[in-house]
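Action item from last meeting closed. Structure (279 res):
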């Protein structure tokens, strides 16, 4: 028995449009990668052309000038510590708010959701003053505390929706078997919310690894904690802009984050759909 095909001309048109939009979003990667292999003179002549003579000198010079291994370790350390704290604290907070729906806990939830709509630019000057008052400026724990504060509301919101779908009977069975409250969370609940945890990890890693504004405000001129975005800034001065070296350094910086994202991106749609829409 023949079945009627659902493929139509309009669907074909939408596919062509989707491909064009995809190419549009991929165009910055073309300019970044192609210009990273060009000389500075060739970039000024034609930044859109394919490199005529591929050179790796840009990568070598950028690696040495910004001390890439050091700044990469700083970015990795800040990202890993911040993301681990965000995931742990937001998961524990969301679990408490879901399982203990008191008036005070509902108020905490509303306040955190309201904090998500506050633009960072409207509070960044006050944040710098508070950071200086608490001696957080120019320190590792200072930048981590700031990332936790700004990343906690969204992460808590995603965990909150996901934990609602976790059957409460599983926790009751664990308590009957003698499991402590902390054991219930770490042994039962946390493994069950792994999809949304992976989503929170991916979103925050992409944000913190590429962030420039918060490190420049908190880390400042502390070269010992300089991250990759802050290091790349050194290629842009008042009178000179070393596009060749900057493009090479940016290419080096996106390689680990692209590998990380591609290895975990299959969990993004699952985690967001289950965490934000359930409950």
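Sequence:
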């Amino acid at each position: 028995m023949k079945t009627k095909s659902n493929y139509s001309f309009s669907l074909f048109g939408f596919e062509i449009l989707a491909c064009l939009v995809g190419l549009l979003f991929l165009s910055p990667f073309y300019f970044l990668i192609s210009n990273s292999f060009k000389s500075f003179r060739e970039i000024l002549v034609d930044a859109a052309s394919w490199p005529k003579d591929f050179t790796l000198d840009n990568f070598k010079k950028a690696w040495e000038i910004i001390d890439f291994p050091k700044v990469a370790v700083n970015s990795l350390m800040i990202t890993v510590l911040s993301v681990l704290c965000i995931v742990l604290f937001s998961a524990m907070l969301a679990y408490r708010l879901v399982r203990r729906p008191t008036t005070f806990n509902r108020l905490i939830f509303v306040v955190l959701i309201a904090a998500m709509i506050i633009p960072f630019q409207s509070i960044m000057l006050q944040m710098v003053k508070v950071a200086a008052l608490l001696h957080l400026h120019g320190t590792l724990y200072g930048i981590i505390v700031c990332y936790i504060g700004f990343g906690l509301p969204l992460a808590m919101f995603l965990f909150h929706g996901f934990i609602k779908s976790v059957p409460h009977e599983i926790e009751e069975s664990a308590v009957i078997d003698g499991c402590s409250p902390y054991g219930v969370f770490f042994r039962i609940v946390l493994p069950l919310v792994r999809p949304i945890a992976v989503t929170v990890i991916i979103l925050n890693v992409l944000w913190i690894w590429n962030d420039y504004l918060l490190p420049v405000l908190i880390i400042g001129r502390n070269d010992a904690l300089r991250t990759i975005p802050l290091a790349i800034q050194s290629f842009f001065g008042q009178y000179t802009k070393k596009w060749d070296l900057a493009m090479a350094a940016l290419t080096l910086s996106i390689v680990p984050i692209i590998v990380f994202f591609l290895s975990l991106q299959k969990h993004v749609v699952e985690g967001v759909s289950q965490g934000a829409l359930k409950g």
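Note appended to the action item: The longest helix spans residues 68-99.
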